[in-house]
Amino acid sequence: MIHVDRPITKAPPDWLTVAKEEQALVETAYAEYQKAVKGKGKNRPEFVYEFKAYGHVLLRDALNSVYGFKCAYCESYFGATQPVAVEHYRPKGAFVEGKVKVKPGYFWLASAWENLLPSCTDCNSPRRQEMVAGKKVVRGKGNFFPIVPGSRRARRPGQEKNEQPLLLHPEVDQPDQHLEFITDHDRVGLVRPALVNGSESARGAASVDVYALDRPQLIQARSEHAKRLISHIRNTRLTHELHQSKPGDASARQAYEDNWNDLHALYLSPANPYFAMARHIVRAKLPGIHI
Ligand SMILES: [Zn+2]
Fold this sequence. Notes:
alpha+beta
């Protein structure tokens, strides 16, 4: 995950109009629902609303334009194989508290620009994944939205401003302060919570867990990408040494410049998949390079 800037000025005005209209209708519908179920206790029906604004084509296009068809959580490029899944950072319909699904969710944020993120299917949808030691567990965000233990969960519009989420948001947080990538050759591609003041980041740990950033196929994709990058770093270093030993040799200079330019174009642009990991590896293996 990398930090991304997506101010509301990038929202398509026509979509914002649709989103605001829906938000007003949802809040009215919820107020009416509350009046209707007053006093019904546990027998009350659930609040149901058919949210539509988050599926609008203008929003999908805007998210793809900012994120370049990359998942906001795992940085995989999904554009070649699947349409964008528009993900609610704070789940709209329900949230999981302990092992219980609580309804309604953050219904008032169902069409809020800052709550809508582009995601791949595996980060977004809970499904059984084969994790370490062949154990299958259900992973993927779904309705999970853990908060700092003992803190207060937002249940009404506006309360989310004081909420303390455990999950990282790519536009609000600096993910590289909470997540780090292992650079050892045998374990390259693995991600773990970074150390914050000497202890493991709880937000990094929760994000790895809920977004399933350690699922085997994702680790494999990152590992292959990392190994290509490390090979490229090696070539860049070799051509740099050659260029320094033969400063007047135009072909040695060209080889070094080509390698350096490719390194940037293929790995060190935020548009590249797994940019957070690539940046981590380059900082470790080419110290002194500012990225
Ligand atoms: Zn993903």
